[in-house]
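It would be a great kindness if you could assist me with a short task in structural biology. The full record is reproduced below for your convenience:
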Amino acid sequence: MTTKQMPRLSTEPRQRIGTRYARRLREGGRLPAVIYGHGQDNLALTVDAEQFMEILHTHAHLVEIDVAGKAEPCLIKDVQWDHLGSQVLHIDLTRVDLTEEVEVDVALALVGEPKALQQAGAVLDHPLTALTILCRADSIPEKITVDIENLELGKSITVADITLPAGVKAVTDQEQLVAQISVVEETVEEPVAAEGAAAEPEVIGKAAATEEEGEAPAEEKK
């Protein structure tokens, strides 16, 4: 990958910091961001919200940041979302050398239609949706595909079973479950007694006998 192939993100200096100022930025269609790393001073910037979201939807990890007419490659290190996960609040970008190794999270994409899923009650469990990898900054894959075409009932795929691109190493635990197919058995509910069914007969005279002996019924004890 070369810098010409990276999506380019223009920036503007951020004059102030703070929650209220950041809210006004977002209302005006811009997002607060910070660039750091490589022993240089941190830069507080703003970026166009629409432009950044377009880049994010392409699953890009590396972007070319335009700062005052000077372009430099940066890694999208962290994106802070609101509690609903619908709006970006803040972006962290870190400077990178294209030849250095970086650690990033890459989305997993399952491909194929296992025949085992045709069995009644069969369900696919896919607990891991992203893989943490280590590779050169210029070799970050947009996604990692996992072929589940031949996945059988009762079998599973772990991180160790994934075929990774050349030069890419998995940081996630090798034994972490990626996908498996299991059968969910239907639960049979116990029948509920109809209203008006005969209740357990009350022992007549028990409470009266207790009272006659000078002891109050249990529900009246303090």
